Amino acid sequence: MDIHFCSKKGNTITGVLEELAKLRIEVFRAFPYLYDGSLDYERTYLQTYVNSERSLVFCVYDGTKLVGVTTCIPLADETPDVKDPFVKANEPIDHIFYFGESILLSPYRGLGLGHRFFDEREAHARSFGTYQTTCFCAVERPKNHPMQPIGYQPLNIFWQKRGYVLQSHLQSQFEWQDIGEDSLTYKTMNYWSSEIG
């Protein structure tokens, strides 16, 4: 492996947008997301990060191949479906930094890159000196979901060890098409947060 890293911010994210879109589609096909994605949707979704001056995309390459990415953005710059639970709960969205995806191709898991992703995003949020909280969301699937792999373990324990707490009062409904389905359906997304130290 020839692992190296690079960071893209704001409109410089355009340079990795196509690679990132393809990686998201590939990785999120797996449980629990089961995402049957399209490049057109991905380009629209990722434009939110391109348009934000304070967004970050931290990339992992093996040689010239993009194998992992993590993203973050001020919550105030996110789309309404992400912001709305916080607005309704009277949370101070101007002081919250939102963590998007952390995705890695399977051969690169177990190398400590999950921690590196959190380190990079937390440091980026802290660098502005104005944010008090970081947060992210994760899909909620039934425990008996027919496509859940044998031995599947959610990342809850890992997130808890990083200092994140499930915020049961904060939920969103995101819509996408699952593998094997022929229409879009809504999924419940649960939010986790941590105070910036």
Report on this model:
With 197 residues, the protein is α+β, with helices and mostly antiparallel strands. It has one domain (3-143, 151-195): Gcn5-related N-acetyltransferase (GNAT) (Aminopeptidase, 3-Layer(aba) Sandwich), CATH 3.40.630. It is 27% helix and 32% strand. The protein has 5 helices and 7 strands, in the order βααββαβαβαββ. The protein has a 7-stranded mixed sheet, sandwiched between helices. Strand 6 (165-176) and strand 7 form a beta hairpin. Helix 1 (17-27) packs across helix 2. The longest helix has 15 residues, at 113-127.
Please sum up the structure shown.
By secondary structure, this protein is an alpha+beta fold. It has helices at residues 17-27, 39-51, 80-88, 113-127, 156-161, and strands at 3-9, 56-62, 65-74, 96-104, 133-139, 165-176, 185-195.
Shape: globular
Q: What is the CA–CA distance across the termini?
A: 34 Å
- CATH level-3 fold name: Aminopeptidase
The CATH architecture comes to: 3-Layer(aba) Sandwich
List the uncertain runs: none
Q: What is the number of beta strands?
A: 7
Element order: H for helix, E for strand:
EHHEEHEHEHEE
**Could you give the order of strands across the largest sheet?**
1-2-3-4-5-7-6
Q: Helical region count?
A: 5
Highlighted features:
7 strands; single chain; 197 residues; 27% helix; alpha+beta
